[in-house]
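pinning this so it doesn't scroll away 📌
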Amino acid sequence: MADAPATASVAVRPSAPRAPSTRPTPTAAGLGLRTLAVLYVGLLVLVPVAVLCYKAFEPGLGAFFDVLEDPDTQHAFQVTVVVAASAVVINTVLGIGLGILLARYRFPGKRLLDALVDLPIAVSPIVVGLALLLVYGPSGWFASVVGTDFASAKPGLILATAFVSLPLVVRAVVPVLAQAGLEQEQAAASLGANALVRFRRITLPAIRVALSYGIVLCIARCVGEYGAVLVLSNGGIAGENETAATRVGNYIDADQDLPSAYAVAFVLMLIAIAAILVAALIRRRGRTT
C-alpha cells in the first residue's frame, strides 16, 4: 500500500496587532465645545458672508456687472492693484531683511526692533493714517523740507498700506530662519560662496513656503486696507486716489447706494477667500515637505 502524500506545512504569519486609535473618543464636553465653535464661526463669519452674497446679487446680475463696469469703480480697483502690489513688493524685501536680522544676529536694541515690528498690529489703522498725515501731509515737516505733499497721492497710500501689513511677512519667515540655523550657510561660505549665492541657494529655498504664505496674507491685507488709506486720501476722491475699500465707504456714506457697495464688497470678499484658500494650500504643502 502506497504511503499517503505528505502534507506541506505552511507557516502562518500571525497578524500584526492593530495600532490603537489616537483619535480621542468624543465626550459631551468636546461635542459641546465643537458645537459652540461652529455656532460662533457661523454667526460671526458665515451668516454675514451669506447675507453679503445675497445682497450683492439681489438686484440681478445686470446691475451687479453695471457697478463693476462703472469707470470710477474700475479706477478704484486699478489704484488698489497698484497700491497693494507696491506694498507687497516693499514688505517682501523688508520682511526678508528684517527676518534675517532678527533670527540670526544679536545687536543692541534687538528686542525693541522686534517689538516695533508688531506695532502695526497693535495700533489702529486710523492712528497710523493720522501719524503719516502729520509727517507727510501738506503741513508736515517732510512737505516743508521737500516741498511736495504726497500723503494723499499713491506714494502716501503705498506707504500706509505697507506699514499696516509689514508684520505678516516678517512673522512668517522668522521662525523658519531660526529653525534652519547657520550650519549650511557657514559650510557654503567656507567653500567660497559669496553672500548672494548663499542667499539664492540656501536661505531662499529654506524660507520658500513660509515666504509664500506671508506674501499671500500680505496681499489680502493690502487689498482690504481701509482706515489708514481713508485718512490719507481724505475719504477718497473718485477717479483720483479712491481705492476699492474707500469706494465701498463712499457708496455707503456719500451716495447712500447700498447695492453698489455690496457689489464692490463682494469682489473684495472673493479676493480674501481666494487668499485664504491659497494660504491653506501653502501651509499644507509646508507640512508635507
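📌 and the second one:
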Amino acid sequence: MQTVAAVTMVRDDAFFLKAWLRHYGEMFGRENCYIVNHGRGSEVATLAEGCNIIGIPGDPHKNFDIKRWGLLNNLMGGLRRYYRHVIVGDVDELVVRDPDAGGSLLDFLEAAPEGRVVTPLGLEVIHRIDIEDQVIEDAILGPRRHVRPAPHYSKPCIISAPVKIARGGHFTQSDKLFTPDDLYLMHLKFCDFGAYVGVMDHRNQVTADVQAGVKDAAIGRHWFAEARGEDRAVFDAFAELEMVEEFDMRPLRRKMQRSFKPRGDTGYYHFDRPHYTTQYVLPERFNGLI
C-alpha cells in the first residue's frame, strides 16, 4: 500500500491552495493528493495539475458544511483501502513535523502504526502587522513567525482507522487520543492580512448568494458578513496577546489528554478547547517549512 494520501476541498482559495500544494504535493507527490474542486474553478484546476482533481457543481446551497463533510468522509473511507494513512482537512490547515524530530512528516507516517487517529496540536499562524511587513511570495513561515494556541484546530486529521469524522473535522469516533509531541496543525487563516481580506470577501459573497442567515446554514459564522467584524481590528488585537517566551507545547497536550472523553452520546470523542490569550514566536528551525 502507498503510505499517505492528502485530501482537501477548495473553492477559488488560490493563496492557500498554493501553500497546500507546496507542502503536500512536494512531500507526498501530486499523484497522492486529492482535491475536490467545488465549482470546477479553472484556476484550481490549473494550479493543481498533476493531482487527482474531483470537480463538483458550485451552485449555492444551504447546509454546505454537512454536504462537504459527507463527501470528504466517504472519500477518506475509500482511500483508506489504498493508503496506510489519509490526511483530510481544510485547504488552510497543514500538518507539519517539528524539524527537531530529525525527519519529515512523511518519515513519521512511514514509521507510524496503522489503526489510529492522530491529532496534531493546533497552532494558528498570526500576522503581526505591527512588526511583520514582509510580503509573502513563497514560504509563509519565516515572514510569519508568531502563533497562538488554537485548540479548535487540534483536529484528528490523520486517519488510518475505520472511523467517521464529524462536520468541521473536529471530532472522530476514535476512543483513544494520539497527539505526538512533534506534530502540529498550522491554521493559516490569519497568516496574512491581505490574503485574509480577499478570502473573507469571497466567503461573504458565497453566503450572500445562498440567502441564508447565520442560524439557518450549517457553516461557520465567519462566512457571514454580519459576523465578520472589522478586519484591521482583528489583526491589531494580536499584538495584545501575552507573549510566552519558551516554545513548549507539552502542557497544552497534557490538557488535551486529561480532558479527553465521550462527546455525550453522539459516538464521538473530544477534549476541552479553552480560549488561550497567549502567543509564541516559532523557533527559527520552522522557517520555510510551509
